[in-house]
Specification:
Distance between the termini: 9 Å
Largest sheet: 7 strands, mixed
Radius of gyration: 39 Å
Shape: elongated
Helix content: 55-70%
Number of domains: 2
């Protein structure tokens, strides 16, 4: 059982850490982090060693006499007290020398948030902690007080005759009840008159019973330990010995009886484990809500980019995106009119005269035409990516999570600034791959002489334009510069490599181009997932949290 429990707590801690790191807001992150510390600083150490020193935490509001009680139990003034806020700023822990090397409150120790005082007066097996005021004006002090409540094996709760009915103490007591931590209740500064004192004690006891805290006592039913006003040790910042005698006796009982100490530790641990599913459920519900919201938002982005990618593909299939001057420049180099005449006389003439089709003179404008064609394609792709981004952002702005993401990254209203450069780089790599394939295909067809005489760049550019402009349904008699260019490129390539080879070659190149554009649009769409502030998308973190909490609460069933 011990190994099963420690494994479950380890998994729960890891899931809570992921939640704290990725939560979309500070409140959600703080809730998960608080629970993670409870798991790491109390549950895991206690699960590993039920015989480790008990953590006894003194909790109270400002001016309740908590630090005076601590000083009385310590036998000397260790912790400052007072009625001005804030008083106790840093937790003070009192431990026996034999327990000084124990892993006491590891979370606080690692953060250097604990002052440790070593003194044999406390007895072996206990560490007594004076917590900051839970109603301190300092938020950090209040957070430390709550953290110590979560890490306590036993809480000595101190309040006064004038403050016991306040809301804040009862909020802390309610959390102590949920947590299941055993309690000692100290009611300080009671009226001197016996009747008045008894009336206050009775009223407080009734409130404890009404709050379902009666069964929370460390040694049975919870009893109120009364301390009269002015019960102070002369010349010291400490309560009188006779006033704190019941608390001292309770602690002495624990230090003297290892069995009682272990039973109390196991009781506190069992109660804390039983409360884990409910505590984790609060975090898991938030995760579920965020996961549903994230799924809806990402569906919006996915639809927008899918539709614009399809529209881009449609424009590519028509070949009308290329500027007319780019096609005219290429036709001027190739000699489209001569090709048209030869085509009318049959493919055999094309094969025989393919090298003569390219005009002699200055170097072929292959690089310039290719770069211009790429520029046209990139501009079109960015235009569609911009449209997808605008559509996504316009819908997201109506959702609170989406609006928060857009507020963090205004760039989500358009295509990413580096999209053009990335596409150009990818297209250049694609063109280089086409050149290598042309070399290989020419050698296999024994047409390398023709390829070499025309130039790999020229033949490659012709192939790229063939990919950009589909030839399905076009004939040489059709009017239009786009159609004419499509036919010229297709026939020239077929004259060199053969019709079947060209069809397969162009199809593969077109698929590779499609993959490049798919990846670019996926990257653009991925920006939205990356900016959701860590909303759970890929894993069901809520289910992981619940399962780990269930295994920890019921290790025997695991």
């Amino acid at each position: 059982m011990a190994a099963t429990l420690t494994d479950a707590l380890r998994d729960l801690s890891a899931a809570l850490a992921r939640r704290a790191d990725s939560a979309p807001g500070p409140n959600h992150a703080a809730r998960a982090e608080r629970l993670r510390r409870h798991v790491d600083d109390y549950l895991r150490p206690r699960a590993r060693d039920a015989g480790a020193p008990l953590v006894v935490v003194l909790l109270g509001s400002t001016g309740s006499g908590k630090s005076s009680l601590f000083n009385a139990l310590a036998g000397r003034d260790v912790s400052p007290s007072g009625v001005l806020r804030p008083t106790t700023r840093r937790p003070v822990a009192l431990a026996h020398p034999d327990d000084a090397d124990a892993d006491l409150l590891p979370g606080l120790s690692k953060r250097d948030s604990l002052e440790l005082v070593v003194d044999p007066v406390i007895g072996r097996g206990l560490v007594l902690v004076d917590a900051p005021d839970f109603d301190s004006v300092e938020l950090a002090n209040r957070a430390l007080a709550v953290e110590l409540l979560e890490a306590a094996d036993l809480v000595v709760f101190v309040t006064t005759a004038t403050r016991y009915a306040d809301q804040v103490p009862w909020t802390i007591l309610e959390r102590a009840r949920q947590r299941g931590v055993p309690l000692l209740a100290v009611l300080n500064r009671l009226p001197a008159e016996a009747d008045d004192r008894d009336a206050v004690v009775a009223d407080y006891a009734a409130m404890l019973q009404h709050g379902h805290l009666t069964e929370s006592g460390a040694f049975g039913d919870l009893e109120v330990i009364p301390v009269a006003e002015g019960s102070l040790e002369p010349g010291r910042d400490a309560l009188a010995d006779d006033a704190v005698a019941p608390v001292r006796e309770a602690l002495a009982r624990l230090t003297a009886d290892e069995t009682a100490r272990r039973e109390l530790a196991e009781r506190s641990l069992a109660a804390a484990l039983n409360g884990l599913p409910a505590a984790v459920e609060e975090v898991a519900r938030e995760v579920d809500e965020e996961r549903a919201a994230a799924g809806m938002l990402l569906d919006i982005a996915e639809r927008a980019y899918r539709e614009r990618r399809r529209a881009l593909g449609d424009e590519l299939s028509r070949g009308t995106f290329l500027r007319a001057e780019v096609l005219r420049q290429w036709q001027g180099f190739v000699g489209a009119g001569q090709v048209a005449r030869i085509l009318a006389q049959g493919m055999g003439r094309v094969v025989a005269g393919v090298r003569s089709l390219f005009r002699p003179g200055p170097p072929a404008p292959a690089i310039e035409v290719r770069e211009a064609a790429f520029a046209d394609l990139v501009a079109l792709a960015v235009q569609h990516a911009d449209a997808a981004a605008r559509r996504t952002a316009t819908t997201w702005i109506e959702d609170r999570y989406g609006a928060a993401a857009l507020a963090e990254r205004a760039a989500l209203w358009g295509a990413s600034p580096g999209l053009s450069e990335r596409l150009v780089s990818d297209l250049e790599a694609w063109a280089a791959g086409i050149g290598e394939q042309i070399r290989t295909l020419g050698e296999q067809r024994k047409g390398w002489a023709q390829v070499a005489s025309i130039g790999v760049n020229a033949v490659g550019t012709s192939a790229i334009l063939a990919v950009f402009i589909h030839t399905g349904g076009l004939t040489g008699a059709e009017v239009g510069i786009t159609a004419a260019t499509a036919v010229v490129n297709q026939k020239l390539l077929e004259a060199i490599f053969g019709e079947a080879n060209v069809a397969a070659f162009v199809s593969r190149a077109r698929d590779t181009l499609g993959a490049i554009l798919d990846e670019a649009f996926a990257g653009e769409r991925g920006r939205y997932a990356a900016t959701l502030g860590g909303l759970p998308v890929t894993e069901d973190l809520g289910a992981i949290l619940r399962e780990a909490a269930r295994r920890a609460a019921r290790p025997d069933d695991a």
